[in-house]
Inverse folding.
C-alpha cells in the first residue's frame, strides 16, 4: 500500500523503530541507518524483529563522508525518523532546518517521550513514566492495586509509535499535495493522553470517575480478569445489559438477586468477591467451553505462545514463527493486497554496499 514511499530511519530504541517496521510492513522502502561497528542495544538481538522488511546501512554520523551519504539519501526520500533527545540531531548538523534545506518537502519525524519542548523535555523517562504523567496509567490494574500497564503497549507503541506513523503519513500526504515538508513532534506523553479521550467521553455522562474502581470499565464485577482453579485467567467485559444477561445465564445466575443490579457501584465489591469465588472453582478450559460461541463477552487471557495456538488467532494467521522467531503478522489488512509471507529481518549493515552503489548510479 505504501510502495514508492522511501523513509530514512536513524537507529534508535523502541517506538521509532517499531513505527518504521509498521511502515515497512505496509510496503514503504525503509532504510535504517545503523551505527557503524555498533552493537544492538542491551537485551536486543543481532537481527532485530523490528528491523524486518527494512534495508540496513551502517554510517558514522560524526564522519563527514558518512554524513554526506546520509544527506544524499535524504534528497531521495520523503521522510526521516529519529528518536533522540531534543537537540541531538541539531548538534550533528542533521536537524530539521539542516535537512529541509536539502529537501524542502521532507517530513521529519521526531519520536520522544516528553516532546520537543516543556520542563521534562531534556529528562530521561520510559514507557511507564510517560503513561503515568499523561493519565493513561491511572485506571490500570484493579482497585487497591498499584497501577501497572502492559509493558510498552500503552506508551511506546500506542501513544508513541502509532501516532508517529499517523504523523508521518499525514505529513507525506501534505507534501505530495504541494504544501511542503513538516516536522512531526510525536511525544509519547501527548499520544497516550490523546488515547484517553475515549474514556473522557464517558466522563461526560458520569461513566468515568477520578477515583479508581468507581468507573464503568475499572470497577464492576463484569469488567475484569479472574483467576481460575488452574491459575489460568479469564477476562470478562459484558458492558451492555443484553450481554450481561447472557453472561449471568451461562453461569446459572440469571435469577440471582445479588447480581441483578449491574450498574450499582455500591454492590460491585460484593459481586466481585462472589464472582471471583465462582471462577476459582474450575480450570480455565472449563470456562472457555462454557462461554464458547456466546455473546457473554468472556475470553481467556493468554500469553503469546498460547495465543498463537488459539483457534481464532490461528485461523487468521496472526502469529507466525519464522526461523524460530515468533512474531505477529502485519496489520491492518487490505482487500486489494493479499497478505504474503513476512519480510526478511536484515543483518546490521547488510545493504551498505548496495545502497551506496545505488546512490552513485541513481
Amino acid at each position: 500500500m505504501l510502495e514508492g514511499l522511501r523513509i530514512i530511519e536513524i537507529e534508535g530504541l523502541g517506538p521509532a523503530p517499531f513505527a518504521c517496521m509498521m511502515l515497512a510492513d505496509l510496503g514503504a522502502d525503509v532504510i535504517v541507518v545503523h551505527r557503524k561497528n555498533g552493537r544492538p542495544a542491551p537485551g536486543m538481538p543481532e537481527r532485530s524483529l523490528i528491523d524486518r522488511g527494512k534495508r540496513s546501512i551502517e554510517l558514522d554520523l560524526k564522519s563527514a563522508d558518512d554524513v554526506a551519504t546520509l544527506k544524499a539519501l535524504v534528497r531521495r526520500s520523503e521522510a526521516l525518523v529519529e528518536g533522540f533527545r531534543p537537540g541531538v540531531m541539531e548538534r550533528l548538523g542533521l536537524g530539521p532546518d539542516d535537512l529541509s534545506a536539502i529537501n524542502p518537502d521532507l517530513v521529519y519525524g521526531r519520536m520522544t517521550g516528553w516532546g520537543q519542548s516543556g520542563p521534562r523535555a531534556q529528562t530521561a523517562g520510559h514507557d511507564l513514566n510517560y503513561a503515568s504523567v499523561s493519565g493513561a496509567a491511572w485506571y490500570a490494574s484493579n482497585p487497591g492495586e498499584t497501577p501497572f500497564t502492559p509493558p510498552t503497549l500503552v506508551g511506546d507503541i500506542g501513544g508513541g509509535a502509532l501516532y508517529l506513523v499517523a504523523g508521518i503519513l499525514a505529513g507525506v500526504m501534505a507534501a505530495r499535495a504541494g504544501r511542503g515538508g513538516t516536522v512531526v513532534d510525536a511525544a509519547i506523553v501527548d499520544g497516550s493522553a490523546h488515547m484517553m479521550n475515549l474514556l473522557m467521553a464517558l466522563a461526560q455522562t458520569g461513566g468515568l470517575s477520578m477515583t479508581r474502581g468507581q468507573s464503568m470499565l475499572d470497577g464492576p464485577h463484569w469488567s475484569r480478569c479472574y483467576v481460575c482453579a488452574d491459575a489460568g485467567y479469564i477476562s470478562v467485559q459484558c458492558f451492555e445489559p443484553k450481554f450481561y444477561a447472557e453472561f449471568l445465564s451461562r453461569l446459572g445466575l440469571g435469577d440471582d438477586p445479588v447480581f441483578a443490579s449491574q450498574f450499582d457501584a455500591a454492590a460491585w465489591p460484593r459481586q466481585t468477591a462472589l464472582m471471583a469465588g465462582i471462577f476459582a472453582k474450575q480450570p480455565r478450559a472449563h470456562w472457555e467451553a462454557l462461554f464458547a460461541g456466546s455473546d457473554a463477552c468472556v475470553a481467556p487471557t493468554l500469553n503469546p505462545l498460547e495465543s498463537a495456538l488459539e483457534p481464532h488467532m490461528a485461523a487468521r494467521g496472526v502469529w507466525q514463527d519464522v526461523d524460530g522467531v515468533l512474531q505477529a503478522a502485519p496489520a491492518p489488512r487490505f482487500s486489494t493486497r493479499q497478505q504474503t509471507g513476512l519480510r526478511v529481518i536484515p543483518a546490521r549493515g547488510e545493504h551498505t554496499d548496495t545502497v551506496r552503489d545505488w546512490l552513485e548510479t541513481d
The radius of gyration is 24 Å. The CA atoms of residues 33 and 226 lie 45 Å apart.
